[in-house]
Amino acid sequence: MREIRQYAAVRELDEGILNRLISRILVGEVKKVDGEKFQEIKIIYNFVGEIPAVTE
Fold it and tell me: Above 90 in pLDDT, residue 9?
């Protein structure tokens, strides 16, 4: 918790912050569904792992 608190009020995202907070980014292949293109992207964060996407 102490480690992540310093990023709670970040106003500008820079390379250093991204490298500290994100472990990796996984980009899936582009798929076409009903004429629309979709691509799955997963962000794996340090400290918490993957956070599930919120869908409506």
Answer: no
Burial class of residue 21, CB neighbours in 10 A (0-12, 13-18, 19+): middle
- Classify each residue of 22-50 as buried b or exposed e, where b means 16 or more C-beta atoms within 10 Å of its C-beta: eeeeeeeeeeeeeeeeeeeeeeeeeeeee
Cβ atoms of residues 45 and 22 within 8 Å: yes
- pTM comes to 0.63
Report how far residue 13's alpha carbon sits from residue 25's, in angstroms, rounded to the nearest whole number. Answer: 16
Find the mean pLDDT for residues 2-20. Answer: 83
